[in-house]
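Note to self: user wants both folds in one dump. Writing first protein now.
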Amino acid sequence: MAEAEEQETGSLEESTDESEEEESEEEPKLKYERLSNGVTEILQKDAASCMTVHDKFLALGTHYGKVYLLDVQGNITQKFDVSPVKINQISLDESGEHMGVCSEDGKVQVFGLYSGEEFHETFDCPIKIIAVHPHFVRSSCKQFVTGGKKLLLFERSWMNRWKSAVLHEGEGNIRSVKWRGHLIAWANNMSKKPEAWRVAKKMKSYLNN
């Protein structure tokens, strides 16, 4: 009888331990707060197509070619009319002082939010991807890449002239680009898995050729 009670007590303790483990393994619920104010006003007349987040603000692109800068409460602080069609991507440097924008009609703009610095170009195909150098604010890092049918690297050279070089082409549209430090990784139609992303380590060698 005593042995049976001990076995029952032991099984209850094991089941309690298992239930505690199951409870501890449950992922915490994600807390969120819906953006309102200016965002509500924007979405009544337009639709969001892309968004980029910086420590200082949010940048929202729309289907009608607008780019809005928002504070964390969703209030509009700045508005840019970039294109009559969809904004495909927005890129910000780490300082939050420079922004790159590309759109479905092939337009590319890179400009300073607090300065008159600006680059703009129109291509003969939709530009899906743009990434500015993380340290674009520095005079030695005036570089950005765009992705459409080709992956193009742009760099501002002597006399403030911009020159470009093809980093990659021939495998369909560029679908995604990430720039970290001196490395660029991208994916295209032929290589969509992260482990198949390619890395360009010496970008300036392309520009010097």
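First done. Writing the second protein, which came from a different request thread.
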Amino acid sequence: MPAVGNIYGQRSQPSCWDRVKYGFAMGMCVGLASGGVFGGVNALRLGLRGRELVSSMAKVMIQGGGTFGTFMAIGTAIRC
């Protein structure tokens, strides 16, 4: 089944800026997930519990998400 076009019957591609935003969002999701896994394992290995565990995991998840999202956005911008 062919893709549905816009109101003028033409298929429009996302702009380069939209692709960069999508790349950042996808990288952010992957970075959050991997940061949760690796940060959680590391925090449990260090013996953190309760509020310290949550705080440590949140920090690692946001750092991982921001870093990986930035690299994915840069990679997507190079491909535009």
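Dump finished. Worth passing along: The radius of gyration is 18 Å.
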